[in-house]
Amino acid sequence: MPELPEVQALVQDLGGRLDGRAIVRVDLAAFSALKTYDPPLSALEGTFVDGVSRHGKFLDIEAGGLHLVLHLARAGWIRWRDEVPRLPPKPSNRSPIAARVVLDDDSGLDITEAGTKKSLAMYVVRSPSDVEGIARLGPDPLADAFTPETLAEILAAAGRAQVKGVLRHQGTIAGIGNAYSDEVLHAARMSPFKPASGLTPQDVATLYAAIRDVLGAAVARSSGLAASELKGEKKSHLAVHGRAGQACPVCGDTVREVSFADSSLQYCPTCQTGGKPLADRRMSKLLK
């Protein structure tokens, strides 16, 4: 799933490619992906791109006073084409293409989504705040306004909620998903199940530093990369996420996993839980 660093890199990459370019049309192949109807998708035709920006994990292409907002969800991505095919993409369950943006020199970009579970969302709005998901976003963790005091207030308000869930909740902190929450907690040497209200002032300071360091480093590494390179860059620098069964790069212990109905988390017992494996609730139920 694209998270803050990857979406920020897409902003930089697409910003350079799209700035001042005219949108000829937007071809929609997956009709369920478009979540708005006013303004219509056709309102983007003939408009010039004014800029590309990010709101949490939402990508925002501004053109002609309108905003084409994309949420790439779990398996969405952007594929740049130096030359788009002459025929528009056809609706098909077999094709990953959800939509195609065609530019004035026949270049463009495909908005794609892999897999059968379709969650990618597109919006055409007059203001980004017209998208409900953007309107209720929490603070951006890399913004100057996100201070240690801000994080302390968020954690105190979360009560006994597990810190992993607090980091992932977009209405609390914008842009951190499953992968980078694992990475942040590993860097902070903190259990994902630790209650938010149980963090000491030193814990909060450590967690804050980990958030800024992990996300900041990922943004720096991704800067200047094309969209086609971002997935590989992210995967190659993850310490624990997606590395269950492999050696922790810090201490050498085996990275463990806890599975849920539709996701999982990874952690290092030595670095994060005092050497004790966390209970995998799904596996426990299967063994009963």
From TrEMBL:
What does the entry give for GO biological process?
A: base-excision repair
Instruction: Please list the cofactors this protein needs.
Output: Zn(2+)
Report the PROSITE patterns cross-referenced here.
FPG_CAT, ZF_FPG_2
FPG-type domain: which residues?
Answer: 239-273
Q: Which domain of life is it from?
A: Bacteria
Q: Which UniProt keywords apply?
A: DNA damage, DNA repair, DNA-binding, Glycosidase, Hydrolase, Lyase, Metal-binding, Multifunctional enzyme, Zinc, Zinc-finger
Limits of the Formamidopyrimidine-DNA glycosylase catalytic domain? 2-93
Chemical reaction(s) catalysed: Hydrolysis of DNA containing ring-opened 7-methylguanine residues, releasing 2,6-diamino-4-hydroxy-5-(N-methyl)formamidopyrimidine
Listed InterPro entries: FPG_cat, FPG_N, H2TH_FPG, Ribosomal_uS13-like_H2TH, Znf_DNA_glyclase/AP_lyase, Znf_FPG/IleRS
**GO MF annotations, alphabetized:** 8-oxo-7,8-dihydroguanine DNA N-glycosylase activity; damaged DNA binding; DNA-(apurinic or apyrimidinic site) endonuclease activity; lyase activity; zinc ion binding
Under SUPFAM superfamilies, the record lists: Glucocorticoid receptor-like (DNA-binding domain), N-terminal domain of MutM-like DNA repair proteins, S13-like H2TH domain
Supply the PANTHER family for this chain: FORMAMIDOPYRIMIDINE-DNA GLYCOSYLASE
Would you identify the family this protein belongs to, as annotated?
Belongs to the FPG family.
State what protein this is by name: Fpg/Nei family DNA glycosylase
Write down the species: Nocardioides donggukensis
Q: Supply the source organism's classification.
A: Bacteria, Bacillati, Actinomycetota, Actinomycetes, Propionibacteriales
